[in-house]
Amino acid sequence: MRAAISNLRDLVEEELSEPVDARVRAIAAEIAAKHGPASRAVLFYGSCLRERELEGRMLDFYLIVSDYRAAYPKRWLATANRLIPPNVFYFDHDGLASKYAVLSEADFRRECGLGARTASVFARFAQPSRLAWSADDEARTMAIDAVSSAAPALLELTRPSMADSEAADVLAMWKKAFGFTYGAEIRAERSSRPEWIVDSDPDRYRRFAAAAGFPQGRSTSAVQRHVSERAWRQFQRRGKRASVFRLAKASLTFANGADYIAWKINRHAGMDIKLKPWQQRHPLLAAITLLPRLIRSGAVK
After folding, report:
1. pLDDT digits (tens, 9 = 90+) for 47-85
2. Domains, the chain
């Protein structure tokens, strides 16, 4: 397994090092500058990367910082980031809109691996990403090492849930894995999204699975299958609860936060919420009043 992981790290390093649009690099550098010396790395990921479209879209970034307290001028932001990671902020630069999530190096390493509290980080970084900015070689190494844990964690959790004949198809394993992760968050995408992600670059997913040692030849017992399915149920419960709290927090950290949370609820629950003036003036109170609608809609279970 060590040789496979070493090879996987090479694949991750190669992928993270692939060039990105100069505008993406500029946004990453500006995001890092907002948080000063605490900034360690900025990773670009998501649909804009996969589809190579920037205009009229919202770009997705993760900012990795050395320490939450050092990253913010206000203590409450550091506390919120530590208790309910990550904090998410809106950022625009040169006519492009983006959002970025903030994690400490320690939290990023944990959330990319099997010790993760929720599935959201290792799910994202098992997919393609780019290291758009790093503070130094040490920060670059940290990012590569952490991201190298994401695909093995995702596949290790998923493989035991599959019959041996099913798991022989490595693309089917990836699709089931992403199906689990989409079920562990409040997401608006269609149910076919996990299949689309894998089918958009099947060779990439075959290479990464092989480098991580999958499909593995060993058989899976009924006990292992039960443990895997139970683990995913726990991730789904924790992930949806965390999504609710993150939405409430985003009402404060996101520009026009109340409008943002209403937009999210409308997308996920098929509703048509119109904010009242007082809700726009008081985003946290708006979040408290709006979130029960999301729960009643069935989007959070």
Report:
1. 899 988 888 778 999 999 999 999 999 999 999 999 989
2. 2-149 (3.30.460.10), 152-226 (no CATH), 239-296 (no CATH)
